[in-house]
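Sample 1 of the test manifest.
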Amino acid sequence: MDATITTAKAGALQPIDQAKPTGAVADPIFVGALWASGIFVLILLGLIIAQLFEGGLPALRHFGIDFLWTATWNPVTENYGALVMIYGTVLSAVIAVIFALPLSFGIAFFLTEIAPEALRRPIGVAVQLLAAVPSIIYGMWGFFVVVPLIAAYVQPPLIDWLGPIPVLGVLFSGPPLGSGMLTAGLILAVMIIPFITAMFVETLESVPPMLKESAYGVGATTYEVYKNVSIPYGKTAMVGAVMLGLGRALGETMAVTFVIGNATRLSASLFAPGATIASTIANEFPEAAIGSLKLTSLLQLGFILFVISFIVLALSRALVRSRLD
Amino acid sequence: MASLAARRAKDTTIKVISTGFAVFAIFLLAWILWTLVARGLPALSLTVFTNVTMPPGMNGGLLNAIVGSLIQIALALIIGGPIGMFCGTFLAENGKGTKIGSAARFVNDILLSAPSILVGLFIYQFLVIPFGGFSGWAGSLALAILVIPVIVRTTEDMLNLVPVGLREAAFALGAPKWKVVMMITWRAARAGIVTGILLAVARAAGETAPLLFTSLGNNSWSVDLSKPMASLPIAIYQYAGSPFDDWVALAWAGALLITVGVLLLNIVSRLVLARTK
């Protein structure tokens, strides 16, 4: 024991002016690698944008900016436009948010105020596991289980009750196929609930107890505190959370591909089959030859999807982080 | 203001509805799992693990798809893991307050939620077309791009939890930067970083869309990374949409395998994290 200490000392104890700085060589390399990987992520995003844009450039040259609002997608005449897919992408994501929002508010209320302490974690984890289920599983579950149920029990009564109403009825017209815009929105809602709920809970837990206790002190009920104190306090971050859910729903591919029906026609009915940008790319890609107009049109669609998601996600992040920074 | 009774009644109503919503969410999870077990378990036999994919009616399995998935996930982790850890460390240690640091954090957040199908399209355009074909390499790289942001985010978050005093103590002893990071902060945040890696694996395991245009899928046995490579999600996608009953059954078996694997990874990573807190 004694010997090891002295030998160790003999190696370490040098006159201080002769000792070499220990990180002289390794430190610049290590720190350089850290900076390099930070910059790599920046370059990566730049490359993705550049490649998608470049890939879609021939389509942009061929169709011009009209590509954005042309409603035809016709492989026979080689006439392609993005309007149907942009409409489908935005509509299905908005339907998802409309259904997910009240559920997320409710679940977050339950997890932060109602549930007994011992149950909060397990139930919170169970809700989070919904986000872990792979997208393709949602697709299969949607296609084999949810679509038949909707076709049999949800669409026929809705068509009977709401179909005859003028103007509004258009949304609920058409044959009860089960698949379509509404079904896609419902499946997407289930997929984004965990994301929105988790961020809601995180925000609600950061509300200073003093604020809530003051409200309780003047006789407010639990719900009144939630509605009038907690939600206004976290409003900005909660809007950001909803935007994140929207951003997720916009780019979801496999689940939507299974249930939306993949029809590249514009239709006002929520029951009619439609298409999103992501589902169109997944569906039509196998039939697109390298160098064909179809392939570059698909890449152009990809670029449009990227721009839409980027705007929504950047907005979401700005709102969520605004309170933290 | 409404009467006390009315306010109490409203409070109770909302509480009941909220509880109902939470129960509904758990019901949905249970429903999905039940569907997978009910349809996947009968199709799950030994041949699923011993046979490769075959034409309908020939008692095929998913061996090549399972092996292909494992290879591509492992490669994605080997490529993306170090980059993700270094970038996360950069954000927590060097990049604080710098313009490049904030930019990298912003870009990482975007990559984390960006549509995964676009990563597939990017690799297709960037590698598959110039290098003449779909390959296991392309699939692995696409998955690596999905793995990186998950690891960056968790690594940064976990390193931020390590007390500054710990680093200062090490620096005061004369330890160089690389030693402080690798032997003190990484070690202190080990459980958290492992959690991030497990979550990244879970994400990569379930992704289908980015593999459609990169490794494509392969119906025969192949471990050659320069050729198209099978993967479990792609096999499921291909089989679930087919008109053959035995293929659809096999798709359910694969779906059950993937979901159980991904959910277990998620639960284990949460346990790892909970134990250290």
